[in-house]
Design brief:
This protein is mainly alpha-helical. It has a single domain (about 15-200, about 210-430), classed as MFS general substrate transporter like domains (Growth Hormone, Chain: A), CATH 1.20.1250. The chain has helices at about 1-15, 15-30, 35-50, 50-75, 80-100, 105-135, 140-170, 175-200, 220-235, 240-250, 250-260, 265-275, 280-305, 305-340, 345-375, 375-390, 395-415, 425-430. Helix 5 runs antiparallel to helix 6 (about 105-135), helix 9 packs antiparallel against helix 16 and helix 13 (about 280-305) runs antiparallel to helix 14. The two termini are about 35 Å apart. Keywords: Membrane, Transmembrane, Transmembrane helix. InterPro entries: MFS_trans_sf. This is YQGE family putative transporter.
Length: about 425
């Protein structure tokens, strides 16, 4: 066992300097992600007892993200990428401070806090995606995302439990809001630490300054369809678990515990999958994630009680990282190919991809809002997830077609432009 652990540590040390810095930066920042994703929504739910306000908050976040992707593109021509990346992380703490400073949670205040949080995500993900693309190649991306998911899931064991029970005990003592403010202060300090780590990297900005295009290769349209389907689930999946648990279980402590149950198994599994799979296995990993998510949605819809929520969270702990572990390398392999074919900046594709995600998020959140407004919040929480899970299953065939087409295009590029085709794309072309 010790020999195996030593071997894995050596494998990590053998990676490039930027690979290690990016991984460690994301590791530090991942400590605050459960707070941002889960407990901010729980705070809105506790303070307003209105699921619709939670969805409004999420919609304003998703509106801020693509706008900031666009702004980030212009700023990359003027500032180092690690400055913008660090700013995004720190801004998430500032957004939480804005939320906690509101005396009453009206729609305007929630919207402002949501837009700022969306901007933080925009700066964070726009630069994180580019750095991950530039720092990894097709042969080690499964390892990168497996390693990253391993750390994220381990952290998801500890942080939700600690924060959840801290808030609940504080609430029992009569001051839950003070507990949220303390958590916000800790979050801000951690974002500063992550920023310091980021500045130790030797990251380079995108070379090609033009990043806005309206016409792309037909191959890119396939990925955009996949992005819309992914965004469909993201539309309310970030806040749906918090709303379900606050309604059916009622406590932040239960929220934290539910987030942590089974996470050890999920973390180890994701690392093993990431370490031992290659590009040829991604479609199977992706398919497994889709099936697990559909099962989770069905269980929640059929039971819709405490047991259903716990099982929903358990299946989600496996489904979400499996989907991400496969999706991001698929996305990056498409960008690798098209940057060579169309001679464009990688950031042009990252920006356009976010537009596809945003369209899907609007449809996902819109489904929830329509069901909640015209029928009931319970129907929205119970059946909207099933609707998007069934639609999401079609992603399997879309992803399969993308991978198949990518092999063909890689072979064509290897023949017509052997001097520009990347080693990873050439390797992809010869895979069975």
């Amino acid at each position: 066992m010790l020999k195996k652990l030593t071997s894995e540590i050596k494998h990590f040390k053998d990676q490039s300097h930027n690979f290690k810095v990016l991984t460690l930066t994301n590791l530090i920042y991942s400590i605050v992600l459960p707070v941002i994703d889960i407990f901010v929504a729980a705070y809105v739910m506790r303070s307003s007892n209105d699921p619709m306000k939670v969805v409004v908050y999420q919609l304003t976040i998703y509106t801020g993200i693509p706008l900031t992707f666009l702004i980030n593109g212009w700023l990359l021509n003027r500032f180092p990428i690690k400055v913008l990346y660090s700013f995004g992380m720190v801004l998430s703490g500032i957004s939480m401070m804005i939320m906690m400073s509101l005396k009453t949670l009206d729609v305007t205040g929630i919207g402002i806090a949501g837009i700022v949080m969306g901007m933080s995500f925009g700066f964070y993900w726009a630069n994180r995606d580019f750095l991950a693309l530039a720092t990894t190649n097709d042969s080690n991306r499964n390892y990168y995302y497996g390693l990253e998911t391993f750390f994220y899931t381990i952290i998801a064991i500890v942080i939700p439990v600690l924060i959840g029970w801290f808030i609940e005990f504080s609430a029992a003592a009569g001051d839950a809001k003070l507990a949220y403010k303390i958590v916000t202060g800790v979050v801000f300090a951690i974002t500063i630490a992550a920023s310091f780590m980021c500045f130790t990297g030797k990251f380079v900005n995108p070379v090609n300054k033009k990043f806005i295009y309206f016409k792309f290769d037909p191959y890119w349209n396939k990925l955009m369809f996949l992005a819309v389907l992914k965004g469909l689930v993201q539309g309310f999946l970030v806040t749906a678990p918090a709303m379900l648990i606050m309604l059916l279980l009622g406590k932040e402590g239960a929220l934290g515990t539910a987030q942590s149950v089974g996470a050890v198994f999920a973390a180890i599994l994701m690392y093993i999958i990431g370490r031992n799979t290659g590009p040829q296995h991604r479609i199977y990993v992706f398919g497994a994630g889709l099936v697990l998510f559909a099962i989770a949605a069905l269980i929640n819809g059929i039971l819709f009680n405490e047991t259903g929520v716990i099982l929903f969270m358990l299946f989600l702990l496996l489904a979400k990282p499996l989907l991400d572990l496969a999706y991001f390398p698929i996305q990056f392999s498409v960008i690798d190919i098209l940057t060579k074919k169309e001679k464009r900046s990688e950031f042009a594709y990252i920006l356009n991809h976010e537009a596809g995600l945003y369209a899907g998020r609007l449809m996902g959140a819109g489904t929830f809002l329509l069901l909640g407004y015209y029928i009931s919040n319970e129907v929205a929480l119970r059946y909207a997830i099933i609707i998007v899970a069934i639609l999401q299953l079609s992603s399997f065939w879309v992803a399969k077609d993308i991978i198949k087409k990518g092999k063909v295009m890689s072979k064509e590029l290897a023949v017509t432009e052997p001097s520009t085709i990347t080693a990873e794309a050439a390797a992809l072309a010869i895979q069975p």
